[in-house]
Amino acid sequence: MKLVAVVKRECPTCSLVEPVLQQLDAADDVDLAVFTQDDPTFPSGVGAVEFDKELDYSYHHDIETVPTLIRVSDDGAEMERIVGWSRDQWETFTGLNGLGPDLPAHRPGCGSLSVDPSLVDELRARYESHRLHARRVDLADLEDEMEALFDRGWTDGLPVVPPTPQRVLRMLEGTTRAPDDIVALVPPDLVECTVEKVAINAVLAGCAPEYLPVVLTALEGACTDEFNMHGLLATTMPVGPVLIINGPIRRQIGMNAGINVLGQGNRANSTIGRALQLVIRNVGGGRPGGVDRATQGNPGKVSFCFPEDEEGSPWEPLHVERGFAPGSSTVTLFPGEGPRGVVDQLSRDPESLTRSLAACLRTVQHPKLPMVFDAILVLGPEHGRVYREAGWTKAQFKQRLHELTLLEGADIVRGAGGITEGVPDAFKDTQLPKFRADGIVVVHAGGGAGLFSTIIGGWANGDTGSQPVTREIQR
Amino acid sequence: MTRTLLDPTSERTPSHREQLARPATLSGLRVGLLDISKARGNVFLDRLEELLSERDVTVTRFAKPTFTKPAPIDLRHEISTTCDVVIEALAD
Question: Rounded to two decimals, what is the model's pTM?
Answer without folding.
Answer: 0.86
